[in-house]
Fold this sequence. Notes:
Layout: H1 5-16, E1 26-33, E2 38-44, E3 47-51, E4 59-63, H2 65-73, H3 78-83, E5 87-91, H4 94-100, H5 109-120
Parallel strand pairs: 1-4
Antiparallel strand pairs: 1-2, 2-3, 4-5
Amino acid sequence: MGNDPTSMFFERLEECGAESRAGRVRGTVRVEVEDGERWCVTFDRGALGVSRDVLDAECVVRTDRATLDGMVEGRVNATAALLRGLVQAEGDVELLIYLQRFFPSPPGADDVVAATVGRGAR
């Protein structure tokens, strides 16, 4: 497909096939980028499907390329972007929250968690 961060993210997600982070949820999220690119992620009780086809979706997410690249690279939190108006979502927004589980943590986040846990253990 492509070498851009978004294409690489969705390609890796497609390779997962089944994933416990998807939980028991069922539904499809269609991500639409302003430049016309579309991705659909279908959750089916732990199974994942990824498609470039335009599928009916319970949640439709619209954003620009920079914001989506930031989300799939862990630099932008999807929920915060939604609240700031950088992302628009229609339908079952909870599905966007499930998709967010697959986005990487922000750079250095593991270091912050480790330091916090370390302090609490004293």
